[in-house]
Amino acid sequence: MAQAVDPHLELKTLALWIGGKAVAATSARLGDVTNPATGKVIRRVPMADSTDIAAAVRAARAAYPAWRATPPVRRARVLQKFLALLRTNATDIARVVSEEHGKTVPDAVASLERGIEVVEFACGIPHLLKGEHSENVATGVDAYTLRQPLGVCAGITPFNFPEMVPLWMFPLAIACGNTFILKPSEKDPSAPMKLAELFALAGLPAGVFSVVHGDKEAVDGILNHPDIAAVSFVGSTPIAKYVYETGARTGKRVQALGGAKNHAIVLPDADLEFTANALVGAGYGSAGERCMAISAVVAVGAIADPLVERLRAKAEAIKVGPGDVDGVEMGPLVTGQHRDKVRGYIDSGEREGATLVTDGRTCRVPGCEDGFFVGATLFDRVTPQMTIYKDEIFGPVLAVVRVETLDEAIDLINANPYANGTAIFTRSGGAARRFQNEIQVGMIGINTPIPVPTAFYSFGGWKSSLFGDLHVYGTDGVKFYTRTKAITARWLDADTAGPSMQMPTLG
Ligand code: NAD
Q: Which of 123, 153, 176, 291 is catalytic?
């Protein structure tokens, strides 16, 4: 009788990146990496255990003293070479992202570019690390601060931006003089390996940057390792909260960015065509798998009917297909499980009484029958009580909520537990100014649908969208990956007057 053949036997298993090279994991546990456009398993990923994490930490600890002592301007030169390599390899990286994530290649190129902007920012590290200095705070006494690295830092990142979100973290952490261990999403782990290879080619010393793949076991290995000083996390809210609490309990500095439910208010005076285009891009781009995707449109007053009509026409015109095919505008969802979850939300919207204007469940892509596709879906007359309004769907589902006034729209957004990003579309400067002042959300767009701050600001939401104090990248990133030391110095060239037993004062 013929032997059953393991269909995955020939598939390549990814390595970890430790000590400046690709190494096999100690853990024998493997996961599947799937091409979401075809539904086929394309490679396997090792699920690191605490032994693998310990090996990465050992390499990072060994590399730390020399890297910390490397002058910031020399660290910046390595980053500049890395930056150039990222640009020349952008299309290759984007293709791998598209293959494992599903998003279109142009979208992957653009997301990579947003990550590269953080590398550009990190190249300015000599300037960013400047401390403060006050001469003569007391007679003959100077005071100043130093900004010093923390040691070994770690990053844990989500599937939806396998290149951009890691780039939010490790270039800046490393520029600050830390060493860094990245645990990317196990769903699309190949792009981070390419980043590690390019950084090594740029001249980064071995051990300064490592990549360990895996799931909860690897994350717990990081959270419980006593020699990791800080953890940056980006992912869903329940895991963000878990990472924040567990990391804090084990004495680490943690920033943990969570999920989102981003609203766009459309006022009656908004430019209808411009707004509809912006909402379709922000709602359905990357199949809605963006933490800054718009998922709730708050239509104020009479604009609702014409807005819904334009959104419907544009949503139905979106070209869905594999992300690497020219002209395709929206790819599949990341896994079959996620596709089923998103379809389940569309079922629940119908069941709970929302008006289903365009139904993505019927989407079929010829030649990709096993792919994880859901078409652009539009609901109208959604209420805050409905599940499709309350939950982060993370798929191509746009929900229109109708209200009568700007006050009602602001109250609705402020009542939401998530507070990542939001936008307003209007021609009224007064309304926009009121909105930016009163809205309880971390990142605001005015006639801008996905207000991801540029690299020299910082990215982060409020409420359940962020646990911790400091946002990622930008000046907050520099603060997160360093700690300040305050020095008070007196250099004597005269006799002292003997001991003083009272608290030193200025003057
Ligand atoms: P996720 O929370 O499932 O996974 C994120 C990371 O945590 C991954 O590396 C994963 O391996 C790990 N992980 C998963 N389950 C774990 C567990 N039980 N214990 C410990 N670690 C675990 O998120 P995802 O599905 O990869 O990404 C989508 C989510 O990320 C969405 O909620 C999205 O809004 C959010 N996100 C937020 C931002 C932001 O900046 N706020 C940016 C991108 C994505």
A: 291
Whether 291 is a known active-site residue: answer yes
Q: Distance from the CA of 169 to the center of ligand 1, in angstroms?
A: 15
Cβ of 395 below 6 Å from ligand 1 = no
β-pairing verdict for 179-183 and 209-211: parallel
239: CA distance to ligand 1 center in Å? Answer: 7
Give the ranges where 391-428 is alpha helix by DSSP (H). 406-414
- Cα of 109 vs centre of ligand 1, distance in Å, is 22
CA 123 centroid distance within chain: 20
Residue 420 CB–ligand 1 contact under 6 Å:
yes
Dihedral of CA atoms 132, 137, 141, 143 in degrees, nearest 10, equals -20
Distance 380 CA to ligand 1 centre (A): 29
Contact 129 CB / ligand 1 (< 6 Å) = no
Predicted structure pTM score = 0.96
| CA 405 – CA 425 distance, rounded (Å) | 14
- Closest ligand 1 atom to residue 236 Cα is 32
CB 170 within 8 A of CB 191: no
Alpha-carbon gap, residue 203 to 75, rounded angstroms = 10
Q: Is 295 in the pocket of ligand 1 (CB under 6 A)?
A: no
Tens digit of pLDDT at every position of the chain (507 positions) = 455 555 556 799 999 999 999 999 999 999 999 999 999 999 999 999 999 999 999 999 999 999 999 999 999 999 999 999 999 999 999 999 999 999 999 999 999 999 999 999 999 999 999 989 999 999 999 999 999 999 999 999 999 999 999 999 999 999 999 999 999 999 999 999 999 999 999 999 999 999 999 999 999 999 999 999 999 999 999 999 999 999 999 999 999 999 999 999 999 999 999 999 999 999 999 999 999 999 999 999 999 999 999 999 999 999 999 999 999 999 999 999 999 999 999 999 999 999 999 999 999 999 999 999 999 999 999 999 999 999 999 999 999 999 999 999 999 999 999 999 999 999 999 999 999 999 999 999 999 998 999 999 999 999 999 999 999 999 999 999 999 999 999 988 766 677 888 888 766
